[in-house]
Design brief:
Helix content of chain A: 25-40%
Radius of gyration of chain A: 17 Å
Largest sheet of chain B: 4 strands, antiparallel
Strand content of chain B: 5-15%
Strand order of the largest sheet of chain B: 2-3-1-4
Helix content of chain B: over 70%
Number of helices of chain A: 7
Low-confidence stretches of chain A: none
Oligomer: heterodimer
Distance between the termini of chain B: 24 Å
Distance between the termini of chain A: 27 Å
Mean pLDDT of chain B: 84
Structural class of chain B: alpha+beta
Shape of chain B: elongated
Chain lengths: 226, 291
């Protein structure tokens, strides 16, 4: 599903590469944690997978597509097969929960009728039934992140990328979000999560890939934060 | 839904930044008015050239004491030249008749002149008025010729004035166009900034590039089209008020501007206005909304 082959990424003006000759493969339906200290390069992996940045060297293959050689006008289409959740939620403040999710559908060409059918369903799935018409500022952090997850998942992507999704949440709420991601994973969606929340990693007991200074130092099938 | 969404975004965008929108429209319309005026002027000079060059004559005035032999030599030189289309002879009496018609409003002036004081002349039309110098060379040296006058040189002076007005309005149009471009670029940047969250989400969920950019580009195009409409109206009013009324005397000499030509400016200005603003907006977005 995801294949990094000898990927090196050096940002301009950086003294050392963010990722240094990294190779890793992730199968369909896996749940993978990327862990490591700040600046270790784990967020760069998310950016590479989304093709927000291009690798300096090496090959990134997502969903059997070589992202590196993807034409720029094909990137939008490519991104529709990937859902994405961030630490800062990235919701539109002037739209309700329903509208935030519907917006994601409508800007990729889905009709309002489709949105009316699909959005309530996915909001129900993330546990926000009854709160569709609240604005982000009327929701708690955990609820906002649920909206973000609903938006990422509404398109039924093959891959869900999560960049420190619990970074702004308290431990209890974090665990609820993890349960949600786990449920999504069980539908067959590959989940890649970047985090440095040791609690969560230890509880989930999933594959853990640890990165330090741009290199993979550990890749463990049912790992702990360590 | 997508068309409705895009149109709605355009209206909201134009309204959110209404002072900038007005500035954009004004500079755009002034620039396009100038452009339209200079294009009209260009077409006008062209029309006048074809109109007047058909009428142009070379006048060969003869000395008062010209002999029959000299006159015959001049006539032979004119007839022998293959540059000549037609020629007429004007005697002192003919010249006086014409003079009387020309100055019929000032009888005192006519009374003070007799046929004798006017020179006799040949009026020659050339096949190609541009070849005046070649023709004049053949006649200039002959005995009895006092002066050769080419009407074309008089017209050239008029055309030169037209040309410089035209160049001036083109320069103003270019300067205003530059200001308009900067304003369009700036407006688009502000619009893109105020919608940066939406744009970020759209990119994240894979909205196509044209869908992200269309509202911004259309915003600029709408301003461009409104600007060109205003510019066209200004041109039309200018034509009616100035040329058809205030300066009517001038237009009888300068051949009137046909309304058809003025109407032709509408698609021209609208086309130039919308194309220029669309390209500017699009280029700005390429720098500003990196995908």
């Amino acid at each position: 599903m995801i294949q990094l082959e000898n990927v090196t990424k050096t940002y301009p003006k950086a003294s050392r590469p963010s990722l240094d000759n990294v190779s890793v493969g992730i199968e369909k339906g896996e749940f993978v944690f990327f862990i490591g200290p700040s600046g270790s390069g784990k967020s760069t992996i998310i950016k590479l997978l989304l093709h927000e940045v291009a690798p300096t060297r090496g090959k990134v293959v997502v969903n059997a597509k070589d992202v590196t050689s993807l034409r720029s006008w094909k990137i939008p289409q490519f991104r529709r097969s990937i859902g994405c959740v961030f630490q800062d939620f990235r919701l539109l403040p002037n739209r309700t929960a329903y509208e935030n999710v519907a917006f994601a559908l409508e800007v990729i060409g889905k009709t309002k009728a489709v949105a009316r059918r699909v959005v309530p369903e996915v909001l129900e799935l993330v546990g926000l039934g009854g709160k569709e018409h609240r604005y982000p500022h009327e929701l708690s952090g955990g609820e906002q992140q649920r909206v973000a997850v609903a938006r990422a998942f509404v398109n039924r992507p093959l891959i869900l990328l999560a960049d420190e999704p619990t970074g702004n949440l308290d431990p209890d709420t974090s665990i609820e979000i993890m349960r949600l991601l786990d449920r999504i994973n069980r539908t067959g969606t590959t989940v890649v999560m970047v985090t440095h929340d040791s609690n969560i990693v230890n509880q989930m007991r999933r594959r853990v890939i640890e990165i330090e200074s741009g290199r993979i130092v550990r890749d463990q099938a049912r790992g702990v934060y360590g | 839904m997508r068309v409705k969404y895009v149109l709605n975004e355009v209206l909201v965008g134009l309204w959110r930044n209404v002072t900038m929108t007005v500035a954009m429209i004004i500079t755009m319309s002034v620039s396009l008015t100038m452009l339209g005026a200079s294009v009209l002027m260009y077409m006008q000079v062209d029309r006048m050239k074809t109109f007047y060059y058909g009428e142009i004559e070379v006048s060969i005035f003869l000395n008062d004491d010209v002999t029959d032999a000299q006159r015959a030599a001049v006539e032979q030189a004119i007839d022998g030249s293959d540059l000549v289309k037609s020629k007429t002879y004007e005697s002192k009496e003919d010249a006086f008749e014409r003079f009387k018609v020309l100055w019929q409003d000032s009888p005192d002036f006519i009374n003070s002149i007799s046929a004798d004081s006017l020179p006799e002349s040949y009026r020659v039309k050339l096949k190609d008025p541009e070849k005046y110098a070649q023709f004049a060379d053949g006649v200039q040296g002959l005995e009895g010729v006092r002066q050769i006058i080419d009407q074309r040189t008089l017209l050239e002076k008029v055309f030169k004035i037209f040309n410089s007005i035209q160049v001036m309005s083109l320069v103003v149009a270019a300067v205003m166009a530059f200001a308009a471009l900067l304003l369009v670029g700036n407006t688009i940047q502000v619009a893109a900034y105020s919608k940066r969250r939406e744009v970020a989400v759209m990119k994240l969920v894979g909205a196509s590039n044209w869908f992200i950019q269309a509202p911004f580009v259309l915003e600029a195009v709408v301003a461009g089209v409104v600007g060109s409409l205003l510019g066209f109206i200004a041109l039309f009013i200018g034509k009616v008020v100035l040329l058809d009324n205030k300066l009517q005397a001038l237009t009888t000499i300068l051949t009137p501007i046909p309304n058809g030509n003025v109407w032709l400016m509408l698609p021209l200005l609208a086309g130039v206005g919308s194309l220029v603003s669309a390209v500017t907006a699009w280029v700005t977005l390429r720098f500003y909304l990196k995908v």
